[in-house]
Every structure is written in structure tokens, then in C-alpha cells.
Amino acid sequence: MAETVFGKILRGEIPCHKVYEDTHVLAFLDINPLSRGHTLLIPKEPAETLDALSDESAAALGRVLPRLCRAVVAATGTREYNVLENNGRGAHQAIEHVHFHIIPKPNHGEGLGISWPQKLLDKTEGTELARTIAAAML
User: Fold this and answer.
1) CATH class assigned to 5-135
2) What strand order describes the sheet that includes 81-84?
3) In 65-111, at which residue ranges do the beta strands (DSSP E only) sit?
4) Beta carbons of 69 and 85 less than 8 angstroms apart
5) Is the pTM of this model over 0.85?
6) Which residue is catalytic, options 38, 97, 99, 101?
7) Model pLDDT for residues 28-40, shown as the tens digit of each residue
8) What is d(CA 105, CA 127) in angstroms, rounded to the nearest whole number?
9) What 3-state class would DSSP assign to 117?
10) According to a count of CB atoms within 10 Å of the terminal CB, is the N or C end of the chain lower?
């Protein structure tokens, strides 16, 4: 795994505005926020993508993420927000370490802007794809 800014933050080499930490995760404010309260949640385990993360670290993220969202909502007064996690450069991942963004959406000009180019799922293809994914769920 490549050396990342998050690794340096975890080792204390780069300061951060910490909002939460336990033995498995660290949450801190994004230094280039899309809106006030934009917070990052990272595992302490060095994994590039979510699928490479251990069950233990994934469970820790899942335990903390809803609590962190409630805290961001309470602190900012913004009820609407996005939770974003990208995997790989092609999916817009800028730092090669698993991280979740909690991005308050106070109005249409701030926060995350996305497009959603949806398509219709073919019934036959959907049946086969669901079967294939289910079989891979070891």
C-alpha cells in the first residue's frame, strides 16, 4: 500500500482537527471541505479499498458512522447530508486509504453535487447477476 496523508495523520506526523478516535478508527474535519462540518472517517487499518478491509475494521466503521453523522447534524444544524466512500482512482478516490466523507448539504450551492446516469436493469441479466454476486458472498 502506498504511503498516504492519512497514514501520516494516524502517526501524528500531520495535525488534524480530530472529532473522534478509538482503537480502530479516526474521524477529523476535511481540510478542503465542500461545506461546513465536512468530516472524514478512516480506519486505522491501512487498506486502499473497502473490499480489502478486515471484518473487524469494517464493523468499527459501521458502528461509528451513524454516531458521527448524528454529531455532524447536531453541530452544524444541517439535517441533510451525504455519506460518500470511493474505491479506486476510476471511482474518484483521491487518497489510497479507505475513508468515508460525511458532507452536510445546507443548500443547493454547497455540499456534494452529483449526477446519477441511471439505466433500466434487464430482468434476465438482473437474475443472473444477483445469483453470481450471492455465490461470491463466501
Assistant:
1) alpha beta
2) 18-21, 25-29, 39-43, 100-104, 81-84
3) 81-84, 100-104
4) no
5) yes
6) 99
7) 999 999 999 999 9
8) 36
9) coil
10) C
Three-class DSSP category at 40: strand
The amino acid present at 61, given as its one-letter code, is L
Q: How far is CA 66 from CA 7, 63, 100, 116, in A?
A: 24, 7, 12, 24
Tell me if residue 99 is catalytic: yes
pLDDT of residue 108: 83
Quote the CA–CA distance of 50 and 88 in Å, as a whole number.
Answer: 10
Determine if residue 22 is left, alpha or beta; phi over 0 gives left, psi from -120 to 50 gives alpha, anything else beta.
beta
Closest C-alpha among 4, 7, 31 to residue 18: 31
Does an H or E element contain 6, and which?
A: helix 5-10
Residue type at 22? D
